[in-house]
Hints:
Layout: H1 3-19, H2 49-84, H3 92-105, H4 120-125, H5 128-131, H6 136-158, H7 163-174, H8 177-185, H9 189-204, H10 208-221, H11 229-236, H12 250-274, H13 276-288, H14 300-306, E1 311-317, E2 322-328
Antiparallel strand pairs: 1-2
Helix pairs in contact: 2-6, 2-7, 2-8, 6-7, 6-8, 6-9, 9-10, 10-12, 11-12
Amino acid sequence: MSRRSRRLAGQSSGVEWATGVLQEPAVDLNLPRQTPSRAAAPEAAPRDEGWYRDSALLRGKRYLGLALMLRLVLIVYAEWQDANLMIKYTDIDYVVFTDAARYSAQGESPYLRSTYRYSPLLAWMLIPNVLVHPVWGKLLFAVLDLVAAVCMEHILRARGVSTMKATCYSWCWLFNPLAINMSTRGSCESVTAVLVLGALLACIRNRVTLAAVLHGAAVHFRIFPIFYAPAFLLYYGPRDASIFRAPFSWKGLHFGVCSAASFVILGVGCYAWYGEPFLQQTYLYHLIRQDTRHNFSIYFYYLYLQGNQGAAVDAVSYTHLTLPTKRIV
C-alpha cells in the first residue's frame, strides 16, 4: 500500500469513529456493575467423576470399619455369653472346627473328630485357634465377610451400577443381621461366599482362568457351588446361540477344564494326605445322609422330633458343659 493510500485509510477511520459508525458494544444497564478493586469469582469447576468415585470408596471404607467394629463387639460378647450363660452364642460347629484343627496341629487327621465333614483346608485355616487364640477363626470369618461385601460392590460397578448405589447395596450385606450373626458365631459360610463372588467378579472381568480356579476351589470347599457351573458356561457362550448350544464354546471349555483341574488337584492332594476318610466324610457322606435338621421341608421340626430312631448321641465337651447332640446315621 502506498503512503497516500495509508493516509486516506487513516482519515476514513477517524471520520467513522467521530461519526459514531464504529462504537463500543452496548452495555446492559440492568446487569450488576463489577467493582474494579474486586476480582470476579471464578466459575465452579465441573465435578470430576474419578474424584467422586474415590470419595465414595472412602465413605465405603468408613462403613467397612464400622461393620468390622460391630462384628468385633459381638465376638467379645460371645466370649462372655459362652462363659456365663447356659445357652451358648458360639455355633457348635465352631467347636467341631476347632477340635479338627487341634488334630491337624498334632499331625493327625481332622476326621478323627466325629461329625467333621468338611475339607481339611478348613481345619488347616483354623490351626491358630489352637496355637494363638480360639477366636482366630471368628476374626477370619468376619474379615472375609467384609471382603464379600467389597466383591459385591465391584461386581455391581462392573455391571454398570453407579458407584454410590453399588456402595449402598453392599451395605445391605455389611449390616445384615443374619450375615453378622453367622460370622460371629463361627460359621464358615463367608469362605464359600468369597470364593463364589470372586469367581463371579473374575468372570465379569473376562479373567477366565482365575474364575475357573476360584470356582473349582469353592466346589472343593463346599459341594453346592457346582450348581453355578451352568450359569458360568452360559455366560461365556455366544449371545445368539440357543440355551443348549451356548454352553459349548471355547471360553466355556476353557472354564470347565480349569475349574475341573482346580477341583481335582485339591481333591487328589487331600486324598493323598488323608486317604479314604477324606472322600467318605467330605463328599460321599452327603449322598447317603439321612438328615432331619438341614432341609427346607415345612415338616422339618416334626421330622426332627420323630427322628430319634437310629440316632447316635455324642457327648461334646463345650466350655465345662456337656451338650448332647443327635446325629442321624
